[in-house]
């Protein structure tokens, strides 16, 4: 499939293999753990990486390779792998940068809580120095890079849950000046909105569980980058064994084909929903990247296509009463209280009990995450219905009856 095709065309067609001149519109599922070779020499060449093909499922699978090929074309990457989860993708990307004892990994303070935990525990225990800093201030970041001389830098294009857009093109330049490598988690924007490798990032990762699959029925991750990372990424899969299964790969690839229509609609819904909720005066603050009052609005306006500000809206209900937030969640009727993003359904998450549960109150405060904040992953329902449900749930905890009792 030519990379000259536009993105929506690639979404539909990329990764469709030719099987002896036959091009199936839906690839069969290959659950085999091993594959016969026509000769011992052929198997030897396969196992040695001299020729392409399949020998053992931990080394490769037709469904997984088709999915990776589609993602590779979409992100304009030279190589890539698929993993069993988004967390495995982060782990593989860090491994690919060849960090070792004594090296420093510099991480944006706004990344997903589990990513902070991964590097701050497992990789820290392996002798890495982990530094967390604010990447929204480029002057501060430049000083931090000069001081710590990291080998690897990790950030997200659109942060969770405060929805900050980082100036990735400028950060790429700063990171490369000190000889470091930049990993960009592109999960919340998808290749439909941003392609960090075009900006010069070294590796891009996705939790394919989210928007790529899009239906809440398959878990997986993807790491993509330049050719120089191929051997290290393949080695990760062979040695760590965090491989994506063929059934999951088939589902994720199927989901990818509709990413364009799904994600654009979800982004439009999120923009519309954010305006309704902001005008309802039921929330202390509504966070949306393309609102002029958002702290990274100027960057978002420059780097994001119009009306594609992502499909997440974060709400601060005010106060710090955990019981009130529980009541808000319990009062939701259409919106589900659940712990992911990217599904066709609208989902609401409470960060302090889910995505950032393992961060201390002090760490969350430093990130700007309050105890009265919830994250809404906007689905494909009618946005007026989504808004009505969120507003009625919020009004229940702001009701005069409740205030009079207090």
List keywords for this structure.
406 residues; alpha/beta; Aspartate Aminotransferase, domain 2; 2 domains; 7-stranded mixed sheet; 16 helices; 12 strands; globular; disordered C terminus
Counting H and I runs of at least 4 residues, what is the number of helices?
A: 16
User: What's the gyration radius in Å?
Assistant: 22 Å
**CATH fold label of the largest domain:** Aspartate Aminotransferase, domain 2
Per CATH, the class of the largest domain reads Alpha Beta
Extract low-pLDDT stretches.
401-406
Task: Please render the helix and strand layout as text.
Layout (H helix, E strand, L loop, with lengths): L6 H7 L26 H8 L14 H13 L4 E5 L2 H11 L7 E5 L4 H13 L3 E5 L4 H11 L3 E5 L11 H10 L3 E5 L4 H4 L9 E5 L13 E5 L4 H11 L5 H12 L1 H22 L4 E3 L9 H7 L8 E5 L5 H10 L4 E2 L9 E3 L11 H7 L5 E5 L5 H15 L2 H6 L1
Parallel strand pairs: 2-3, 2-4, 4-5, 5-6, 10-11
Antiparallel strand pairs: 1-7, 6-7, 8-9, 9-12, 11-12
Helix pairs in contact: 3-10, 4-9, 6-7, 11-15, 13-15
Can you describe this structure in just a few lines?
Helices cover about 40% and strands about 15% of the residues. It is α/β, with parallel strands linked by helices. Strand 4 (about 150-155), helix 7 (about 170-175) and strand 5 (about 180-185) form a beta-alpha-beta unit.
Explain how this protein is built.
The chain has 406 residues and is an alpha/beta fold. It folds into two domains: 7-30 and 61-257, Aspartate Aminotransferase, domain 2 (3-Layer(aba) Sandwich), CATH 3.40.640; 260-399, Aspartate Aminotransferase, domain 1 (Alpha-Beta Complex). 41% of the residues lie in helices and 13% in strands. It has 16 helices and twelve strands. It has a seven-stranded mixed beta sheet with strand order 1-7-6-5-4-2-3, with helices on both faces. Helix 8 links the parallel strand 5 (181-185) and strand 6. Helix 3 runs parallel beside helix 10, helix 4 crosses helix 9 and helix 6 (138-148) packs parallel to helix 7 (168-177). The longest helix has 22 residues, at 259-280. The model is unreliable at 401-406 (pLDDT under 50).
